[in-house]
Amino acid sequence: MAKQSDKKIAQENLKCLNNLKWGFIIVNSIYCIFRILYHFESFGSRTALLYFATLSISIYLGLELNKLGTPRYGPRGNVEWSGIDLSSKGSIDYMFDVIYVTWAVHIGSMFYEGFWLFYLLIPLYALYNIWKLFMNPFSGSEGNVPQEKSKRQKKMEKRQLKQ
User: Fold this and answer.
1) Which of 33, 90, 125, 159 has the most C-beta neighbours closer than 10 Å?
2) CA–CA separation, 62 vs 119, rounded Å?
3) pTM here?
4) CB 88 within 8 A of CB 105
5) Residue 95 near residue 65 (C-beta atoms within 8 A)
6) Could you tell me if 104 and 120 are in contact, meaning their C-beta atoms sit under 8 angstroms apart?
7) Nearest 5 degrees, angle CA 89-CA 104-CA 112?
8) How confident is the model at residue 73 (pLDDT cuts 50, 70, 90)?
9) Other Cβ atoms within 10 Å of 110 Cβ, number
10) In Å, how far are 36, 49, 81, 161 from 74, measured between CA atoms?
11) What are the C-alpha distances in Å from 6 to residues 11, 96, 112, 160?
């Protein structure tokens, strides 16, 4: 039964990595064709620096996801290692988010140069999560919420009121 799970994870990972590869090719092809070939006069050194910096970040994250999610097969074609489940939450999910934001910034910056500022959402979101992680235990809001009483507690209170 565990092997069936490994096979399923391996298939889903390969599908996800294929979608990631095609998304990368499509978005960057559109950007290069539109921005570099048709509007080369607006492709200055600052825009080139921003594009290649964000491109390198997305390439690095894509290669890491590829390394983590690619399954290994044995000599008989059986799955030896399914790879890390790429649909899991946590840092893998954040890596996908950074790649998707990068793609959105690349497409948006073709039409409006100020769209590069949208990339600041990534560190702002990280700061928000850090703030939430450290400040949530100290907020004290959990202590003020009254707990719902169980049936047994309600029954005991009724007995005490009758006496």
Assistant:
1) 125
2) 17
3) 0.73
4) no
5) yes
6) no
7) 155
8) confident
9) 17
10) 44, 43, 9, 71
11) 9, 22, 45, 57
